[in-house]
Amino acid sequence: MGTTLIVGASQAGVQIAATMRELGDTDPIILVGEEPHRPYQRPPLSKKWLKSELVPGDVILRTREWFDGQGIGLISADRVVTIHRNEDGSGEASTQGGRRLHFDRLALATGSSVRRLTIPGTDFHGVHYLRDADDALSLEAALHDPANRRVVVIGGGFIGLEIAAVARSMDKEVTVLEAAPRLVGRVVSEETSAFYLAAHQRRGAKVVLGASLKRIIGGVADAAGRRSHVVAVELADGTAVPADLVVIGIGVIARTELAVQLGLAVDGGIVVDEHALASDGRTVAAGDCTVMPNPYALGIPGPTRIESVNNALEQAKIAAASLLGERPTYRSVPWFWSDQADLKLQIAGLSTGYDQVVVRGRPDDERFAVLYYRDGALIAADCVNQPAEFLAIRNALGKGHTITPEAAADTDIPLKQSITEPLLATAEAP
Ligand SMILES: Cc1cc2nc3c(=O)[nH]c(=O)nc-3n(C[C@H](O)[C@H](O)[C@H](O)COP(=O)(O)OP(=O)(O)OC[C@H]3O[C@@H](n4cnc5c(N)ncnc54)[C@H](O)[C@@H]3O)c2cc1C
């Protein structure tokens, strides 16, 4: 079959290589990643890593011995900049470092990069983003500097809130500035948003909703003209929120530059089908860089983009099999987690287009679930400190089963016992 080139050496890229080997492929595999580190997991970077509770060995995905043992050529600290494709699907990739890599099969697992804030002042010292290990090392050091007492987090999404929780646990004064009228509003219900607002406030964070930002204010540059340090974030109404440290977490953008170069369809991500095949029918793509018609979107039109480890891994398995000529279909129930202080949120399914929610349990106890329905059928749930409920719901969704809203609301009946009917005919079971 020849050489497989996988661009992007993170969750999806490494999993494509691993699955190809598991499926019996023995041909050469080259995995290229531009980061200078061994492939690692990103989720700990906004959680335990910032508290200095982990060492690099805790977050790496696979050891050097594993790559060697599997005969997978890992090239780090080099970026694929151009790809030339022949008629027969083979081609050659050129890297920034001057490598020319021949391939017979191609996988794109290029992930996403942070969305940049476009107000003045983002280049002052003390302004951080968090996407990769280098960002995490620099933010970890800044958080441990006692001079940085006041932390302003721009963006009340999962990563911003995780960082806010870490900063509060280190006794920093924390202010979260969120442009929308509620926290994590793009993903969760009003009930879950309200819970997180109260929970962060209880833990001592200030949260400003509907915050319109004007600029980041810095001090005076030194005599040599070196960048000065941030001192505040100014809102459109003139309020200045004092800051020694600013962390921006306003979402990510799929990295599609190579796909565009190859003429593949792109729509907010590389468009792939249920076999992880791109529009040319032979390149595969997986993970944060893709959009696809997710079966759990239950008829919501348009491709879905999912930024989660589970999606990267499950789609990568499909991509690997497709590269080997099999045609498995993506069927994994989407799921995600976020750890904020002692609150473990686990989300199963996709809530897009819900028309009813049921709150099971009491949010004030910090142990509850919000179940989402569309046309009477269960489509998703947010579970806070309820791992057993999460598993029950994820399994139910996987089997196309449901839980009636009435049963869901009754905490006297264990959720597992309430899983009964298949989804209604209007919501096509995957
Ligand atoms: C701080 C943080 C916390 C997170 N927490 C959670 C969580 O709690 N739960 C959860 O489910 N998900 C979480 N996520 C999201 C999760 O990490 C991503 O969904 C996952 O990493 C996606 O994997 P991926 O392989 O598709 O992309 P990425 O992890 O983005 O990897 C893509 C890789 O490709 C490389 N690359 C891109 N272009 C090129 C090129 N041209 N040449 C060479 N290399 C290239 C990039 O440098 C990168 O290393 C978190 C993400 C971050 C940043």
Automatic annotation (TrEMBL):
<dbReference type="Pfam" id="PF07992">
    <property type="entry name" value="Pyr_redox_2"/>
</dbReference>
<feature type="domain" description="Reductase C-terminal">
    <location>
        <begin position="335"/>
        <end position="417"/>
    </location>
</feature>
<dbReference type="InterPro" id="IPR050446">
    <property type="entry name" value="FAD-oxidoreductase/Apoptosis"/>
</dbReference>
<dbReference type="InterPro" id="IPR036188">
    <property type="entry name" value="FAD/NAD-bd_sf"/>
</dbReference>
<keyword id="KW-0274">FAD</keyword>
<dbReference type="Pfam" id="PF14759">
    <property type="entry name" value="Reductase_C"/>
</dbReference>
<feature type="domain" description="FAD/NAD(P)-binding">
    <location>
        <begin position="4"/>
        <end position="316"/>
    </location>
</feature>
<keyword id="KW-0560">Oxidoreductase</keyword>
<dbReference type="InterPro" id="IPR028202">
    <property type="entry name" value="Reductase_C"/>
</dbReference>
<protein>
    <submittedName>
        <fullName>FAD-dependent oxidoreductase</fullName>
    </submittedName>
</protein>
<keyword id="KW-0285">Flavoprotein</keyword>
<dbReference type="InterPro" id="IPR016156">
    <property type="entry name" value="FAD/NAD-linked_Rdtase_dimer_sf"/>
</dbReference>
<dbReference type="InterPro" id="IPR023753">
    <property type="entry name" value="FAD/NAD-binding_dom"/>
</dbReference>
